[in-house]
Amino acid sequence: MTTDQTATEPAAGTTPDVTTNAGDTRLWVERTGKRRYTGRSSRGAEVLIGSVGDEGAFSPGELLKIALAACSGLSSDSALAHRLGDDVQVTISVSGMSDEAEDRYPAFLETMDVDLSGLDPAARERLLTVIHRAVDQHCTVGRTLDAGATVSLTVAGER
C-alpha cells in the first residue's frame, strides 16, 4: 500500500472487497409480506420497503433517491454549518422518473433549499463553489451513480 492510499481504497488493478461494509455494518432485507420487505442494519436501523404508493413504505427507487440526497447533504454539511451556523435549515429534494422500457433511472434532479440571503454576493459564490466541490468529490452515492457499479447476485446454495 502506498502512502497515498487508505486502507479502504483498492490498489490500482485490484478488485474491491464486496464482502464487507463500512464499519463492519451488516445490511439485509427480510420479506415481511407480499412485495413488502424490511431493510435492517446491525446498528438497529429499519426501513419499510414496498411498491410505489404503499403507505408507510419506500420503494427501492425512492430509497436510491433519498440516499443520493442524504449523501449530498452529508458531503456539504460541514461547509454549510461553518458558514451559516450549526442550526442551518437545509432541505434537499430529489426527483427523477424511471425509464420503464429500460427499467432504470436515467437521470436525477437534486434541489438544495438553503437560505443564503445573509451572505454577500462574493461569500455566496464561494459557498456555492464549496458545496458543489464537496458533493462532487465526497458524495459516494453520487459518484457511484455517475461511474456505474458492478452488481453481483448470488443465491445461497447455488454454488
From TrEMBL:
This is OsmC family peroxiredoxin. Residues 1-23 are annotated as: Disordered. Gene3D superfamilies: 3.30.300.20. It holds the Pfam family OsmC. InterPro entries: KH_dom-like_a/b, OsmC/Ohr_fam, OsmC/Ohrsf.
